[in-house]
Write a structure and sequence with these properties.
Order of helices and strands: EEEHHEEEHH
Strand order of the largest sheet: 1-2-3
Number of domains: 1
CATH class: Alpha Beta
CATH architecture: 2-Layer Sandwich
Radius of gyration: 15 Å
Shape: globular
Oligomer: single chain
Helix content: 10-25%
Distance between the termini: 20 Å
């Protein structure tokens, strides 16, 4: 059985989306990292914007990237509404788990893709 989120916090520690998984693992996704991994067709084709926090009015400064809200999509995914206006990415739970940037996770992923 695949792990599923038991708790999702959009405003986790240090500007992260934090997810507690049913297998006890905790994942912390920095906002720019998660936004850069958006799985929508537009981002898959063109890549994410180079600086999603950039302002069209530089004198106003840089707007920090963050999620404004999120919604569950069925029992399999999370849709994040970013403050840069982007919201079409639907992050499947298995995809989110595969993106976990913690030091524990890349080794098992590398072994699975190598074999």
């Amino acid at each position: 059985m695949e792990a599923v989120p038991t708790t999702i916090k959009l405003a986790g520690a240090e500007d992260t989306v934090s997810i507690a998984w049913s297998d006890g693992h905790l994942s912390y996704y920095p906002y720019p990292y998660l936004r850069s991994k958006c799985p929508c067709a537009t981002c898959e084709e063109n890549g994410p914007p180079p600086d999603p926090g950039a302002s069209p009015f530089p004198i106003l400064g840089r707007k920090p990237l963050k999620p404004e809200r999120a919604a569950l999509v069925g029992r399999y995914a999370l849709q994040i509404f970013w403050n840069d206006g982007h919201s079409t990415g639907i992050y499947a739970f298995d995809f989110l788990r595969s993106l976990c940037p913690c030091p524990e996770c890349p080794a098992p992923r590398a072994a699975a893709t190598a074999g």
